[in-house]
């Protein structure tokens, strides 16, 4: 059993922790939990950081408990939110619970060993807890001043916070108390935004059970503007569900991160040893243009979240747009869905099949049929082709007067590349 706290420190995964937690974890197998509210039908990349806490926790010989917040999702956590979230219907929450429950099972071992993971739902112990007993048994132990001092509350007071959201920390605090008394849970972990909720649980355990409990938080994974990834946050999220964020999009997102971000992420998301990571970082720094760190972390995360096959296809998709002519076979091997995924962010040009049937040269196709979107005129198209600046379906076009005989992808698509970075998808209908 490794020193879990020291292990997390070198991985950069500790933001804060209560005194005594390291000694507690070094004393033997500890049962710890993290909760995830089903406010969406999928977890996201930010949740993966806390999931990795649980994975590393289990790998260190401790017992992980995962709580799906079927009850707390009906309230909504105010932490790091500028305004109150929209309340979900019970039907939506039940659906989200089922989806997230399936996702959680792919990251932890729920089957083997004394420290096999346990999956619980806080609706099971909160659904029959009526209002008056909750006020008497829970509310009386937590002073209002203590609740008002939490950052999650203070940041919302000026704009307004409802009693519903104000009481959220009591519900999460009771979760910790319930798990402490019924499951032997002595540690709660979570993102840095959860510190106030975690310490409320510790306080409730101290007052109601005269017990001692502990907490660890990890740094939040944030976007470039400093906002956190969240299931109900605005902006484009990176989801773990392949139907919401494709494996290619996940791979590409990680491939495009900065050197500093890549070094941080590979420590969090990999199980490489310290020596292996140090060797990798040195190799990357020697030739940063190869983006070795980015490629490695993109491959690790995409494989872990999806599969080796999904990662292989994502890498093939990436090579099509950012590789060279050797990716011709990879392009034709893509199924239609993957082709459209690869081309999701590039310009689309639709032409009628009758027009396609009458185009006499690639030069004409690039100018007339595309209404100047790719080249402004036939002479411009001829100049680009003669300069070896046009590729169609990753095949270099060398003759401006060449008939457009390159086979259509799936009978209706042409991928046109102008220069090194400009791509267009022609759709024949």
UniProtKB/TrEMBL annotation:
Q: Where does L-tyrosine bind?
A: 33, 168, 172
Main site of residence? cytoplasm
InterPro entries associated with the record = aa-tRNA-synth_I_CS, aa-tRNA-synth_Ic, Rossmann-like_a/b/a_fold, S4_RNA-bd_sf, SYY-like_C, Tyr-tRNA-ligase, Tyr-tRNA-ligase_bac-type, Tyr-tRNA-ligase_bac_1
The enzyme's E.C. designation: 6.1.1.1
Q: Which GO terms describe its cellular component?
A: cytosol
This protein's record includes keyword Aminoacyl-tRNA synthetase:
yes
Motif 'KMSKS' region: residue span? 228-232
Location of the protein in the cell:
Cytoplasm
Which annotated residues bind ATP?
231
Q: Where is this motif: 'HIGH' region?
A: 38-47
Q: Which family does it belong to?
A: Belongs to the class-I aminoacyl-tRNA synthetase family. TyrS type 1 subfamily.
Q: How does it assemble?
A: Homodimer.
**HAMAP family reported for this sequence:** Tyr_tRNA_synth_type1
**What name goes with this protein?**
Tyrosine--tRNA ligase
């Amino acid at each position: 059993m490794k020193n879990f706290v020291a292990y997390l420190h070198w991985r950069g995964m500790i933001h804060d922790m209560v005194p005594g937690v390291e000694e507690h974890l070094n004393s033997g197998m500890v049962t710890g939990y993290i909760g995830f509210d089903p406010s969406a039908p999928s977890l996201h990349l930010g949740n993966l950081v806390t999931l990795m806490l649980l994975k590393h926790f289990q790998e260190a010989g401790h017992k992980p408990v995962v709580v799906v917040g079927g009850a707390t999702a009906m309230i909504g956590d105010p932490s790091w939110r500028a305004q109150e979230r929209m309340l979900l219907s019970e039907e939506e929450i039940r659906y989200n619970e089922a989806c997230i429950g399936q996702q959680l099972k792919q990251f932890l071992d729920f089957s083997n060993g004394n420290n096999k993971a346990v999956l619980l739902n806080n609706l099971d112990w909160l659904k029959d807890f009526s209002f008056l007993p909750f006020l008497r048994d829970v509310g009386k132990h937590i002073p209002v001043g203590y609740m008002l001092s939490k950052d999650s509350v203070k940041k919302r007071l000026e704009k307004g916070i409802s009693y519903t959201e104000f009481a959220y920390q009591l519900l999460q605090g009771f979760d910790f108390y319930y798990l402490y008394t019924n499951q032997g849970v002595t540690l709660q972990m979570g993102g840095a935004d959860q510190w106030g909720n975690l310490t409320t649980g510790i306080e409730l355990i101290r007052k109601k059970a005269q017990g001692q409990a502990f907490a660890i938080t990890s740094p939040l994974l944030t976007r470039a503007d400093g906002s956190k990834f969240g299931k109900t946050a605005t902006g484009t999220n990176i989801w773990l569900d392949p139907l919401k964020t494709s494996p290619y999009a996940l791979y590409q997102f990680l491939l495009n991160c900065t050197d500093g971000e890549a070094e941080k992420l590979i420590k969090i998301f990999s199980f490489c040893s310290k020596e292996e990571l140090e060797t990798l970082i040195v190799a990357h720094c020697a030739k940063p243009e190869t983006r070795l760190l980015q490629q490695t972390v993109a491959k690790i995360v995409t494989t872990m979240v999806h599969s080796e096959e999904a990662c292989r296809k994502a890498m093939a998709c990436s090579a099509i747009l950012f590789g060279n002519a050797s990716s011709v076979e990879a392009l034709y091997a893509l199924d239609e869905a993957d082709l459209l995924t690869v081309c999701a962010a590039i310009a689309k040009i639709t032409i009628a099949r009758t027009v396609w049937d009458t185009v006499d040269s690639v030069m004409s196709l690039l100018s007339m049929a595309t209404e100047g979107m790719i080249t402004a005129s036939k002479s411009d198209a001829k100049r680009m082709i003669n300069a070896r600046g046009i590729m169609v379906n990753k095949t270099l076009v060398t003759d401006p007067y060449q008939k457009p005989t390159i086979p259509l992808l799936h009978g209706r698509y042409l991928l046109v590349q102008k220069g090194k970075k400009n791509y267009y998808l022609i759709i024949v209908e």
